[in-house]
Amino acid sequence: MTAVSDREQLSYIAGQAADARVNVELQAGDMTLNIGPQHPATHGTLRIAVRLDGEQVVQAEPVAGYMHRGYEKLTEVRTFPQVTTLVNRIDWLGSFANEVPFILAAEDLMGVEAPERAKWIRTILFELSRIAHISLFLGDMGVQLGALTPVFFAFRDRERVLNQIEAATGGRFHPNFDRIGGLKDDLPAGWIAETKATMEKMRTFCDEIEDLLMGNEIFAARCRGVGVIPPDVALAYGLSGANTRASGVDWDLRRDGDSAKHLAYDQVDWKVWTHPDGDSFARFWVRLQETREATRIVDQLCDGLPGGPIMAKVPRIIKVPEGESYVVTENPLGQMGYYVVSKGDLGPFRVKIRSASFNNISIVPWVLKGVYVPDVITILGSLYFILGDIDR
Amino acid sequence: MMGSLLALAYWQETTIKLLIVLLVVPSASLILVYVFLFKMMSFMQSRLGPMEAGPYGTLQLIAEAIKWLQKEDIQPEGSDRRVFIAAPIVVLTSTFLMYVVLPAGPDAVVSNLDTGIFYLLAVSSLSALGVLMAGWASANKYALLGGLRAAGQLIAYELPLVLATMGVVVQAGTLNLQGIVLAQAEGEIFGWGGIGNPFILTQFLGFFIFMIAAQAELTQTPFDMPVAESELVGGYHIEYTGFRFLLFFMAEFGTTFAFAAAASVLFLGGWWIPGFDADDNILNILGPGVMLAKIMFLCFLIFWVRFSYPRLREDQLQKFAWKFLIPLSLVNIALTGVFKVAF
Question: What is the pTM of this model?
Answer without folding.
Answer: 0.83
